[in-house]
Amino acid sequence: MAHLAIEGVSKSFGHTFAVSDFSLEVGDGELVCLLGPSGSGKSTLLRMIGGFERPTDGSIRIDARDVTTLPPERRPTGMVFQSHALWTHMDVFSNIAFGLKLRRLPKAEIRERVENALALVGLADYGKRAVTQLSGGQQQRVALARSLVLEPKILLLDEPFASLDQHLRERLREEVRDIQQRLGITTLFVTHGQDEALALADRIVVMRDGRTEQVAPPSVIYREPQTAFVAGFIGSMNFVESEIRDGICTHPLFSFSIPVADGPVMLAMRPEALTVRPASRSADAIVHRVTDFGMHKIVDIDLADGTRLKAMVAPGDMIRAGMTVAPSCSGFFAFRDNALIHQSAAAQAAAPMQPLYTA
């Protein structure tokens, strides 16, 4: 196990900063997910930790040792890339053994370690297979074994499942989490998939434009987002613009007491916090679409001002497209200039992390 300390790290390409003044500490055996949209600096940061990019500013320390300027082969890290990066002219055994041979280890030790690594990733009898004979998921297991066989202190995973189908991604991420916990290896996992981050991480680092938006455990990230960006990026969220006057939100459908200074406000409400009931007044809202996900339905609702909301209802609910409805909310967040200014008690207490639908 190992402790990782990133202090004030920045990386610029010309006049553009991919990562800006980033700091983070990762504890022994912790699995931290770097989560954010494309271009947020996740992979650049991971490559700097692995030694494939050199920071413009700042330092990176592993177990108190400064590794900022060390090349990848001199760092106690192992990296698994999205593209697998396997050598197709070698069989599975040779791919995994390659790094050990560079270290000039005895043949018997190499064989033992490779066989142990293959067993660890569930490919015990695949050593003589050609890489081209493997499925995408099997290739990713080989890439993982090739990193683990070197016994790194820190494992770096750069969107390793992005090219795989949904069911395979889910299975492999469970396997990776089991292996990580079994070995107790400190791990950083880059993803833009919120479901992967919520399923895998001890803590999530939400990144935006090379900076940190919020760092917290998955349940806190979901239930207590500190910025509007985090609220919208994790799970599904409805946003409604309004005003506060004398401590009251003036939106015609959502008149909440919000004890902050008067001014503009962005209301944020989870679909599971919205209740939908039929209404006779056409000014309320119109159901645009109902999508059945089996365990629940998602109702798309068009408001008079053009805003579209999503509400989660029970699978047996009789709401239909074209109906006039009156939505109400049991819990909400209020943001101003991207920062959280108020959160109702129900928003924190009632919001589950699942399901993460994509309707």
Automatic annotation (TrEMBL):
Positions of the ABC transporter domain: 4-234
Gene3D superfamilies per record: 2.40.50.100, P-loop containing nucleotide triphosphate hydrolases (3.40.50.300)
Keyword Disulfide bond: no
InterPro entries in the record: AAA+_ATPase, ABC_SmlMolc_Importer, ABC_transporter-like_ATP-bd, ABC_transporter-like_CS, Mo/tungstate-bd_C_term_dom, P-loop_NTPase, Transp-assoc_OB_typ2
The entry's keywords: ATP-binding, Nucleotide-binding, Transport
Protein family (similarity comment): Belongs to the ABC transporter superfamily.
Protein name: ABC transporter ATP-binding protein
Species of origin: Rhizobium mesosinicum
